[in-house]
Amino acid sequence: MGITAADVNKLRQQTGAGMMDCKNALVESNGDFELAIDILRKKGQKVAANREDRSASEGLVVAMTSEDAKNGVIVVVNCETDFVAKNSDFGAFANKIASIALTNMPSDIESLVGLKFDDKLTIADKIIEQTGVIGEKIEISSFGKLSAGTAYAYNHPGNQVASLVGLSASGRGDAAKDVAMQIAAMAPIALDEEHVSKEIIAKEIEIGKELAIQEGKPAEMAEKIALGRLQKFYKEATLLNQQFIKDNKLSVKQFLDGEEKGLTVTDFKRFSLS
After folding, report:
1. What is the reported pTM?
2. Angle between helical axes of 33-51 and 5-15 (0-180°, round to 10)
3. Which of 69, 112, 198, 204 lies 20 to 30 Å from 17 when distance is taken between CA atoms?
4. Within 10 A of 165 (CB to CB), how many other CB atoms are there?
């Protein structure tokens, strides 16, 4: 049967594949659209297999919250090149994955990719299909979610870094925005000193001891000096103890308490591609 330009365009709209790939798939399938889609999908599987060992270090970080500001998700969708990451179609693809995640709030990446992307494909299937369309390895490398009194998502321009924060009280969008921007800019590793892992604490104390000895301090004083440096580490690396970026006379904890007595951060996430 004759393959028309309208047929090719229809398949292109459905799959996002290139014009020639769509035309060739329709010719091979004798104009059968479902078979043509399967042909394009198999091409994606072949490309994905060939790209498996490639590094996918570019991409987009997308954070998103629900309309009631109670739930939030943050997703990193990777590709191989900056050129693809900046493509509007790839941006729409990453945002749709984040939207599906927000609707379903899956427990982890494995559960996320098993969700339906549309009425025919799962997210995992769609990633393979898009790998064939784009010709680059695509993967979801990171996923986080939270629920809180107020959830706020901050996407830094360019979507190379994004943050998600949850506050203990509802209706605190302005305060949540300030803290989300703090998280994106200052990259805290934990909420406060109680949430820093024992491994990191032990490492920081050991580093502090070594520095003290290198500076000529007596060995018996090294541990005390190291513990003092640990307190400085907490102020620099834990969110509630950091200096608030809009007023360095306040810690983030003091800023929040000033906004509303007892207001605090219940959870946060931050992902960056750099």
Report:
1. 0.81
2. 50
3. 112
4. 31
Report the alpha-carbon distance of residue 178 to residue 195 in Å, rounded. Answer: 21
User: What residues contact residue 68 under an 8 Å CB cut-off, 6+ apart?
Assistant: none
Q: How many CB atoms lie under 10 A from the CB of residue 13?
A: 10
Using one digit for the tens of pLDDT, what is the confidence trace for 41-100? 777 666 666 566 677 899 999 999 999 999 999 999 999 999 999 999 999 999 999 999
Can you read off the two tokens belonging to residue 141? 């490398």
| Amino acid making up residue 154 | Y
Token match 């994106």: residue?
A: 184
Tally of helices (H runs) and strands (E runs) in the chain: 11, 8
Q: Which pLDDT score, from 0 to 100, does residue 50 have?
A: 59
Interior/surface letters 116-140, b for 16+ CB within 10 angstroms, e for the rest: ebeeeeebebbbbbbbbbbbbbbbb
> For residue 190, what are its two tokens?
């934990």
